[in-house]
Amino acid sequence: MEISGADNEAWSMNEIDAIPLSAESEVVEASDFRWDGNGFEAGIGVAASGGGFRAMLFHVGAFLRLAELGLLQQAKRVSSVSGGSITTAWLASVWPDLVTADFANMKDVFVSPMLAFARARIDIMDAVIGLLPGTSAARQVAKFYDKHLFQGRSLQDLPDQPQFIFCATNLQTGVLWRFGRTYAGDYIVGRLDRPDFPLAQAVAASSAFPPILSPLVLKFADGSFQDWPTAPSKPITAIRDFRRTVILTDGGVYDNHGVEPLIKRFATLFVSDGGAPFARNSGLCRNWVSQLRRILDVTDNQVRALRRRDLIGRFKAAAPLSDEASLVAAQGYGRFGSYWGIDTDPSKLAPEGALPCSPKEVAALSGAPTRLSNLGDDVSEKLVNWGYAICDRSVRANYRGSMRQVAPAWPFPKRPLA
């Protein structure tokens, strides 16, 4: 049996039983574990998927529209993976400026810097430099992020509200690793309280796309980690080894939607998915390398499809309920909110006044490569427009809560998608 959820990481009970026991430290059952002592509650959680610069720009447009509708401002937690973590880390960096201006300055302080950063060429150059002794591709990416975007900010510079969570995958424990202002860690290894990591390093871990930009290796002194306060069950062997060296890869390996820290915690979820659509191809090569790559793609697609199916099922289950209070009182399976993907068919979501979107145009955008590299101004601005337009369509078609009534308008009028 496998148990999974927002505050309960997936873990095979057979695997736990197979771990040799030691008295050095203890780990709790997944079904009993809570990250911060809180259960299901009212409030908005926002998730941003992985997908390189393609997803980064797609989320920029989506967040712009969420802010216009007055929903982004209400978020209690923003969770992200990989390319989405670049977007949300910059959002966190400028959050105080946005609050001061009631988010009327989104285009100036949030959108424009993201577009400027999207002109960078990171992945190949840093992968090559990362082959040199004494460094790695992930550390080179972190240096680039810090120099050209975050400029020395640390996790302790994040706002108190909303709580920003940047997700990576711990290759040793096989579960989700979280970076945040109040803690970093995973539910097996333990927690680092008030971590003072550079923000760029957290984002680099979250976007350490394997195998080229992965892994990011972190070293810790003995005593750095604390056990979780949840009641213990079974000890884990050699916990000190897990705590001295932590090997992280892209958060999308575990959950490319970024919903894991949200799904069992908040009653309302807005999920922006800029991940690459799965391509069906009748002419695949049959050599070992191509076959292995295709198998990994199929496995990844299946995991993502199951998460989407669960999410949509939750939205449907909430249909009979009227508000968050009734949902929380029932401690039910349902959730309010909406999901939109980069390959969502715009014709299936047609609220009044929706911006016109050509299926051919948006299909081309969904096929943009998963790279940390310049996609060109035309594609970049159209990706922002597309994230904005499909977020608008999905939220106004599916979300039943209150929002501002602001007519949509292209962020970049010279790049329409009609």
From TrEMBL:
Organism: Rhizobium tropici
One biological process term in Gene Ontology: lipid catabolic process
Amino-acid biosynthesis listed as a keyword: no
Positions annotated as active site in the UniProt record: 82 (nucleophile), 250 (proton acceptor)
Domain PNPLA, residue spans: 47-263
Keywords tagged on the record: Hydrolase, Lipid degradation, Lipid metabolism
Family annotation (PROSITE patterns): PNPLA
Keyword Nucleotidyltransferase: no
Motif residue range(s): DGA/G: 250-252
Identification of the protein by name: Patatin-like phospholipase family protein
